[in-house]
Amino acid sequence: MKISEITASGLGTGYSPVAPGTAGSVLGIILLWIFNLGLQKLNFEQPEILVLNSAVIFIIIFSGVWSIKKVHETWEHDAGKIVIDEIAGVWIAAFSAPLNLYYYMAALTLFRFFDITKPLYIKKFDNMKNNWSVMLDDILAGIYSLIILRMLIYFDIF
Length: 158
Fold this sequence. Notes:
mainly alpha
């Protein structure tokens, strides 16, 4: 496999025979958990963790768009095996959540809800047919999920 295919398929999770988008999202939340756990163990403070998470999100987005452009040469537009966009979206959804399993599961659930149902302009981005649109609908789903998760945390609903 080419590096663009490995990237676009989320280390191969996009090849899952059942729910590849969910498989990619689960990989994303696991990677985020491991990343943030490592940062905490290294005694990074919350502002530093947010900056590093922002940097990783941008790396995922731009490497994702690059890989999507490459695989679109042979794969159909927004093929089901492209899940790097789900990885970016779920990282955004859980971006500022405290390292708590319930919050991370809520972020994953909210993200999958918005990604699957595509309300509130998400469908508009999904209907666009370019390399960025593959990523943008999941970025927006991640942002909506982040907003709701932060409200749940703020109002102490968990």
